[in-house]
Amino acid sequence: MEFKQKHLLGIEPLSPSEITCILDLADKYVQLNRQANKHSNRLVSLTQINMFFENSTRTQASFEIAGKRLGADVMNMAMQASSIKKGETLIDTALTLNAMHPDLLVVRHPHSGAVDLLAQKVNCAVLNAGDGKHEHPTQALLDALTIRRSKGHIKGLNIAICGDIAHSRVARSNILLLRKMGNNIRLIGPPTLVPQGFSQYGCEIYDDMRAGLKDVDVVMMLRLQRERMDGGFIPSEREYYHRYGLNTEKLAYAKEDAIVMHPGPMNRGVEIDGTIADDINRSVIQEQVEMGVAVRMAAMDLLAQNLQKSRLQNPDSTNKKGVLV
Fold first, then answer.
1. Cα separations in angstroms, 165 against 37, 94, 173
2. 74 by DSSP, 3-state: which?
3. What's the pLDDT at 87?
4. What integer best gives the mean pLDDT of the chain?
5. Count of beta carbons in the 10 Å neighbourhood of residue 65
6. What's the pLDDT at 54?
7. 67 and 104 in contact (C-beta within 8 Å)?
8. How far lies 186's CA from each of 153, 214, 323, in Å?
């Protein structure tokens, strides 16, 4: 299968075959990461810059580990101490970095569309590590890999995505990916957090947790995105947990072999009961973390291959400043 993308900015541009291409390669990297020698030379001599304008633990760490295991020179920019704080624009920062000739740029930004704008200004492959409420493509890909490895396939499943859909870029990317791969998606949450507009994506919408979880194969819980809320979306965390928090009683409505997922960080006792999160027979939350490294290795490998092909075919594709012309 051929992966043709220059950047990984979202799930929307990807075809089902390209998604499968990433997942298949990621499967191979899962095996590599479980060996004593976890290193490859796929990105040797290439430079990877991580620019995180928002705090991150799992995503930033896994991108850094992924790059180092592939042999890249990895630089983590401390954006809180960068020239952005002195008034420099995102585009000027991008052009400055571009003059250093990086090969892979990993960006997380609080504003939707910022990563796409940056990708138009640099002469390297850009990976979206989450932009505003827009998308988080590698999270959706690692979730898909987790589901496929757990269920043996990723087609024709009933998947419930529960909680703060309105503010979640994880939800948007997962909806796009899982629908492309032929699954049935249910969105569960209070009307304030699950706008009816999501029905245009072909999703069923429920405000009753038990009805929504009936006979599903996968239960994907989401974090309440307090930092993106402006106003009273829920009466209280206690009331939210009572109605929409996942516990043993609510999970019993799903299939007996249903798996439980959460992108993290978790708010135990708000979105999910701790006993469910730690249940090794149902929870695949730690597996999601493991799959994140493998998926990001696969994505960077494929993008680097395309970048190197492009440079060989178009050696004069940049101007004197190294910017695309």
1. 40, 31, 11
2. strand
3. 77
4. 91
5. 17
6. 87
7. yes
8. 19, 10, 44
Over range 64-86, report the average pLDDT.
83
CB 156 within 8 A of CB 182: yes
Q: What is the CA radius of gyration of the chain?
A: 20
Query: Where does residue 117 rank: exposed (0-12), middle (13-18), buried (19+ CB within 10 A)?
Result: middle
pLDDT category at 318 given cuts 50, 70, 90 is low
The two three-digit tokens of residue 78, written as one number = 């401390």
Question: What pTM did the predictor assign?
Answer: 0.93
Cis peptide before 265 (omega within 30 of 0): yes
pLDDT band at 77 (very low <50, low <70, confident <90, very high): confident
- Phi, psi dihedral angles at 16 (to 5 degrees): -55, -35
Q: What is the pLDDT of residues 6-52, one digit of tens each?
A: 999 999 999 999 999 999 999 999 999 999 999 999 999 999 999 99
Cβ-contact 288, 141 below 8 angstroms: no
Edge-to-edge, what's the strand order for the sheet holding 158-162?
204-206, 184-188, 158-162, 218-221, 259-261
Q: Taking a C-beta distance cutoff of 8 angstroms, is the pair 173, 140 a contact?
A: yes
At residue 101, the 3 state secondary structure works out as: coil
Q: Please, are residues 262 and 272 in contact by the beta-carbon 8 Å criterion?
A: yes
The DSSP call for residue 122 is -
Pair type for strands 218-221 and 158-162: parallel
Q: What is the pLDDT, as a whole number, of residue 142?
A: 98
> How would you class 165 by CB atoms within 10 Å of its CB: exposed for 0-12, middle for 13-18, buried for 19 or more?
buried
- Maximum distance among all Cα pairs of the chain, rounded to whole angstroms: 64
165 and 225 Cβ atoms separated by less than 8 Å: no
pLDDT tens, position by position, 102-111: 999 999 999 9
Query: Nearest to residue 300, comparing CAs of 33, 76, 66, 142?
Result: 66
Distance of CA 70 to the CA centre of its chain: 20
Q: How far apart are CA 254 and CA 218, in angstroms?
A: 8
Joined together, the tokens standing for residue 66 give 């992924």
For residue 322, is pLDDT > 50?
no
